[in-house]
Design a protein that fits this description.
Keywords: Electron transport, Membrane, Respiratory chain, Transit peptide, Transport. Strands 5-2-1-6 form a four-stranded mixed beta sheet, with helices on one face. A two-stranded antiparallel ribbon has the order 3-4. The protein is an alpha+beta fold.
């Protein structure tokens, strides 16, 4: 049975906004290990499911999809959001 991982995308560290941070992603777990190409040395495999990343508006929708397709999905909860409120004057203490 194929396995998948469901997780919530982290906020982009290079931007201040939280666009697309509320959606949930489903990725397939690799079914075979990567191996080095003898000619180029690049790592690759014949597993084409690793290229698929599906996005869902909610965790329930992602779980329903995995259940419908017969996937054994593990859910990784999002890290708690920590707000560090600081005044500009605190830089000069």
């Amino acid at each position: 049975m194929p396995t998948a991982r469901i997780y919530q995308r982290a906020k982009n560290a290079m931007q201040s906004g939280r666009a697309r941070a509320e959606e949930w992603l489903l990725e397939y777990e690799p079914s075979e290990p990567r191996r080095a190409d003898p000619l180029t040395g690049w790592a690759g495999s014949g597993d084409t499911r690793r290229q698929i990343r599906l996005s869902f508006p909610s965790l329930d929708a992602a779980r329903a999809y995995a259940e419908k397709k017969g996937l054994a999905a593990t859910v990784t909860p999002a890290a708690p959001r920590v707000m560090k409120i600081q005044a500009y004057a605190d830089n000069f203490r």
